[in-house]
Structure formats: structure tokens, C-alpha cells
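>> received
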Amino acid sequence: MLNWKTVVAFVVVVTGLALAAACNGGGGTQQGSPAPQGEQVSVKQDDFDFEPDSLSGDAGQAVTVELENEGSVAHTFTIDELDVDETLQPGDTASVTFTLANGGSFAFYCRFHRSQGMEGTLTVSGGGGGTTPAGTETPGAGGGVPGY
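>> returned
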């Protein structure tokens, strides 16, 4: 279950990014300028869930996920399609940054505890017409990756 503070913080971040994009005036990044700063979101790992378990963003956007393992065992934050795989021991924190290149729905999960339901969904708008990349499964759609 999502903590209301986490939901409010996520909504504030997304709203701020939308306002910043709207105020940009449509101008692109000039050559030699630093890339626009992306979204930052906090994800807590517990035994055995993610909080929040649903994330979203826009294609082309850089995202930094601040991870914190509040659980009593090691967990991973894994997104196969984005080559993300970070392992955290109990009490550890870490940052993972990636760019959302294509639209679609991507599963993020703990390699150690996916079979116990430790997974979530990253939904990316735009970039590919909202198509789901080949090999991506929707949680609960059956099938699955052997061994998880």
C-alpha cells in the first residue's frame, strides 16, 4: 500500500517538471549546454514490496531513482529493458539514473523476491507511440521469466 506522503511527493515532482517544461518556450538544448535535468523519485524497498510500485515518465526524460532498502534482507531494483540492476543490502541507499528512450510499460522488480510479488510498473509516455517493447510482460498477465 502506498504511503500518502510518497504519493504527494511524487505528484509534486511530476507537476514541477510539467511546469518547467511548459515554461521552456519550446527551445531545444543548445550544443555544448548541459542536458536538462530529469526527474528524481524515491523508491523504498521493504520485505517484500516497493513503495511506490508504480512510476511514470516521458520518453527522452532522464530519471534518477533514489533507492533505500528498509528491509531485513538484500533486494535488487531491476529493469531488464533499460539494463538497470542495482543490489542493496539491508539499510543501504543507492542512486540509479537512466533515460527513458521509448514509450511503453516496463516491469521493475527484485530478482530475489519477484515470485513473492516484489515488482512494479514503469509507464513511459511518447517516443514509440506508447507501444510495449518486445519481451515486456504486464504484471499478472501470466507467463513470466523462469526462475523468478
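>> Residues 67 and 94 are 5 Å apart (CA to CA).
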